[in-house]
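We modelled the chain as a single entity of 302 amino acids. Its sequence is:
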Amino acid sequence: MAYKHVVNFREKFVYPIKETVNWYPGHMSTGIRKMQQKLKSVDCILEVHDARIPFSGRNYNFHNLLTAIKPHIMILNKMDLSELSYKSQILEKFKTENINNVIFTNCKNQNDEGIKRVSFSLFLLNIKIFICFKSNYTIMIIGIPNVGKSSVINALRNRYLHKDKATAVGSMPGITRSVLEKIKICERSLSENGDQYFKFHIHTHTIKEGLIDTDILADYLLFILNKHRNFSYMHYLGLEEPCDDIRIVLLKTAINLKATFIFKTSDGQKILKPNLKAAADYFLKGFRKGEFGRMLLDEDML
């Protein structure tokens, strides 16, 4: 969205100063180990990631501990929300990591060509396994929360069996927990890798309660949108002009949403205050739903 009004936007995002980030519940740290224990019974690994953060969202331990050992297909899901003009550059960067079988998918589309390519790749694998006299084969689907693992499972199930959804689909992490444990993606500190940390968390709901405030994530999203001169958030939040101050953005958004909470003063009086957390959640939800158009947050990593 073009806008002629001159605003001095930030050129750099200042991250909160924190020690090493331990944002994940304890059980996440055991996920890779549990998957390693199942590798003997696995014929192929489908690694699923969000096409908007094809690099920031990856756990690089996947390759060394899992995908280098078994046949591997990289699936970049939610391609309908990603800026695909960088597609060839993304593929080239994966090639430098010896990852050549990369497929973009949009599981919302039942006729998605990407899912057809995944199916064909699995068909070729099935031929190889048949030659080895195996009657069936097992696929392990891995990936961080909220990238569409359930959607990929259901799309393949629908294509092969013409049946309804096998697993629940939702934006909250852990929906496919019965299939796969959640995986920790980073052990580095915020100061060392803050950009990757924030990119990941504005895409998902995996952040541990109380570790970092939602309004800080919303501020990072505002910084990213303004950096790319993407002012589509104005219409979504009900703003009259672009703004680089998250406090003003959230206050006006809360007022527009009529989002309030009751605050009790020291003398016992009850007053209504704008709910800035609800406004921040609404802002982040809009991004996750694709309200601000196609975006690639890992452009600087190409």
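As a brief sanity check on the tokenised model: Confidence is low (pLDDT under 50) at residues 23-27, 169-192. The longest strand covers residues 44-50.
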